[in-house]
């Protein structure tokens, strides 16, 4: 468990790794992220909410991601804490 009380489960790790693959600092739109992960945008948004820095139930999230609305699109970005988390993950043999 991390200092924030949030465990990095398989879905969270998949999100972090997918966002880390986004070019530059551009982030990734929720529909694109959902498509890459094989999940609906609403499922992805719920998980991103847990992975942000908002306090839910009095417990602050780990702050690995931030979600912003740009014009009419919701875009997810890794934070510095999220990049550090990705860098600390073991290599994934299933990725090419």
Automatic annotation (TrEMBL):
State the species of origin: Variovorax paradoxus
Its domain of life reads: Bacteria
Taxonomic path: Bacteria, Pseudomonadati, Pseudomonadota, Betaproteobacteria, Burkholderiales
Q: What is this protein called?
A: FdhD protein
């Amino acid at each position: 468990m991390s200092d924030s009380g949030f465990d990095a489960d398989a879905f969270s790790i998949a999100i972090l790794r997918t966002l880390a693959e986004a070019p530059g600092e551009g982030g990734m739109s929720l529909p694109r992220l959902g498509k890459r992960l094989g999940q609906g945008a609403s499922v992805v948004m719920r998980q991103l909410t847990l992975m942000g820095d908002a306090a839910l139930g009095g417990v602050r999230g780990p702050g690995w991601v931030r979600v912003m609305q740009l014009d009419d699109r919701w875009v997810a970005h890794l934070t510095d804490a999220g990049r550090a988390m990705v860098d600390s993950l073991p290599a994934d043999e299933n990725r090419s």
